[in-house]
Amino acid sequence: MARSLTPAQQLEKEQEDTYNASFILRRYQEGLLSIQNRISDYWLNHAFMLGFQWTFVEERTGLVREVPQEPEREQVVINRIWPNTRIIIAKLTQRELTFTNMPSAADDGSIRAARIGESIIRATSEDHDWEAIREKAAWMAWKGGTAAIAVEWDSSAGHVTVGPTETSGEIRGGDTVETVLGVADFVVEPGVRDAETARYWIKVEALPPQVVQSIYNLEDEPESDVTAGSSGIMKKLISTSGVGNATSAGGTGDNLALVLTYYERPNAYSPNGRCSVVVDGAIVEGEDPENGVEMAWPFPFKDRLNFALIRETVVESEWTGQTVLSMARGVQATYNAAWSSIIEHMKLAGNARLAVPESSMDLMDEFTDLPGEIVPFDDSSNPPFYLQPAQLPAWLIDTPVNLAMQMDDIMGVHDISRGSSPANVESGYGLSILAEQDSTPVGRMSKEIAKAFSKVARMVLELMEDNVTSSRESIVTENGQPPHTTEWSGKDLLGQTRARVPLESIVPRNRAAQLQLAKDLQAGGLVQTLDQFMAIAELADADQILEKVDPDTARARRENHSFRSGRGSHTAEYDNHEIHVREHNIFRKSQAYEMMPEGEREVVDLHIERHADMAAGEAGSMAGRMDVGGPSLAAAPTASETPLPPGMEEMLAGGGAGPGLESFPEMGGELGIEGATMQGVAPPLV
Q: Which of 157, 499, 585, 678 is geometrically suited to a Cys-Cys bond with 175, CB 3.0 to 4.6 A?
């Protein structure tokens, strides 16, 4: 039998259950206490990253404090965490994000909608600079073990249309906003293991009071309450961390106001969900005090919250993650202490001193720097001699070296990461193996980032489908391809919003190993063309190289891009039909071709047949010219600039009358007459 509550307890419970600013602040404090250790780790790691490495976390308050400076003692900082971290982040962001959006059904409508969704995501990633967001998220997750990418809808941003009348002005169609949050920038419902499916979460921002007043149209400036009671070093860290956009908004760490944005998805206790903003102890957005109307959950999805989580190291019993940087922090502190001890020895006992008898002090003024100088001394005393500084023990000298190696092992950064070859390893294959092992520590984090951006892309598409009612255009650019414009509105997506980032597209790869692989495949005969070699080796500026060296292949691939975009392409007399047929057949064997509507596939098929017909016509024309004018007329340039088939140049150089086309059976095959290239057979690499 449940114990009944006293009147005072009942009143307290009703006050706790009342949805107001105190309700949100109380939940914020509860969430803050549940992850206090992770937040302290983040701030300490952030301090070490910036070089504030003689610091500690005060157990009572959880604030970062500085170790008191003693004037007579050395407190050296030799920051190895920073350069090691830069190498790791560079690996994680080595390859750009790519997106695919596979349709959920094979009908033409779903395929077209999925293609539109893919164009929207690619355009959004460029417009919103998701590469910069990915790098920020990687830094946040590396320092705090946990980061999140929040997705929100801003009705005052995005596409601009002109109002129906001259006085109505511009109308904003709205756009998504993606924000990177560290573990100190948000809290979720305490006790959950899956943060993305919790009931609620609270976003924390630290902004200058004037900015907050302007955003929410407040009568008075809110109080600067973010760093109240904080230490000096804590204010420095907040002003340099970008927490809550403090840095970008001009905050200095001691003049920031706290802004809490509360999101609660629909559940049994709140069927419509909630969304409110709290500033200075009051709800400033998300509630109508006069009518008692609360702002409902503003997203079309209800099975999850509006953020995607990234964790450096997963902790199976918590929603937060950990980071190996916390393990490296203790080694870094010991490393600094070891060097401080060595430098103190150098300062106090590192100088060689000259010892002379007291009776010879008068002679010191006569000493010169002449080599082999004769130095007289008193017969009753010892000659002058140097006092050698004390020799430090070998273990003390070796300690910083051993600590540096230990830190590199923890962080997964070694000589191969810095571009140096380890001793006794000289072969390219051996270096590629070491490079692969050296990239292993960041492999799991690459997977987390790919999953997070897949979720972000899905949320963006769902918001676009739900909120965009007018027609818009998305411009997508790809390397080596012309820009492509897609016209769309939300209703065109038809629920095709399951975009994803293929993991294999962003996993770090060693360029030297890729180049060696391309050479091995070429030596084995599996790589026979220049474009195949450049693709496997992942050469820089490969598209520009292909444009200059093999323009026909580059043009054929631009045509394939037009086919994928639902547009056709024309054939021209100056095309190398053999190369075009080969490239188009490669495209016909891809998944992209298989998922195209039947009408668009027919366009591709007819295009290839046109190339084959034109190739046959050119072959017949060349044979006719040889019969009429001989080799000289056949060798004359034409507008099509079609290369001569193998053996024809040697035959023409010999000056003979020349046989007919029937003497060169390979010519007909390579020009597509006999259908050889129609089966996708590539010519040999000459």
A: 157
Show the 3-state SS of 138-207.
Answer: HHHHHHHCEEEEEEEEECCCECEEECCCCCCCEEECEEEEEEEEECCCEEECCCCCCHHHCCEEEEEEEE
CA distances from 220 to 212, 464, 488 (A): 10, 36, 43
Contact 312, 443 (CB under 8 A): no
Please give the structure tokens belonging to residue 54: 């003689």
Cβ atoms within 10 Å, residue 330: 11
Name 637's Cβ contacts closer than 8 Å, sequence gap at least 6. none
Angle between helices 530-537 and 511-523 (to 10 degrees): 150
Find, among 204, 200, 187, the residue nearest to 304 by Cα: 200
DSSP assignment of 114-144 equals: HHHHHHHHHHHHHHTTHHHHHHHHHHHHHHH
Residue-wise pLDDT for 615-668, tens only, equals: 888 777 766 666 665 565 555 555 565 554 444 445 444 444 444 434 334 333
The candidate with the shortest Cα–Cα distance to 528, out of 682, 651, 376, is 682
- Which 3 state secondary structure label does DSSP give 370? coil
With 0-12 / 13-18 / 19 or more C-beta atoms within 10 angstroms meaning exposed / middle / buried, residue 48 is buried
Confidence label for 456 from pLDDT (cuts 50, 70 and 90): very high
Length reported for the chain: 686
Give the integer Cα–Cα distance in Å for 205 and 186.
9
Alpha-helical regions (H) of 382-439:
394-411, 428-438
User: CA–CA separation, 294 vs 269, rounded Å?
Assistant: 14
Q: Which residues pair with 148 in a beta bridge?
A: 181, 309
pTM above 0.85, yes or no: no
Give the whole-angstrom CA distance, residue 683 versus residue 673: 15
Structure tokens that stand for 52 in this block? 């504030």
- What pLDDT is attached to residue 482? 66
**Residue 481: its H or E element:** strand 481-488
C-alpha angle 252/255/257, rounded to 5°?
120
d(CA 664, CA 328): 70
Amino acid at 235: K
User: With 0-12 CB in 10 A as exposed, 13-18 as middle and 19+ as buried, what is 264?
Assistant: buried
SS3 content of the chain, % helix, strand, coil (to 5): 50, 15, 40
Q: Who's near 178: CB < 8 A, 6+ residues apart?
A: 128, 130, 133, 149, 150, 151, 456, 460
Give me 51's structure tokens: 């070089």
The partner residues of 257 in beta bridges, in order of sequence, read: 207
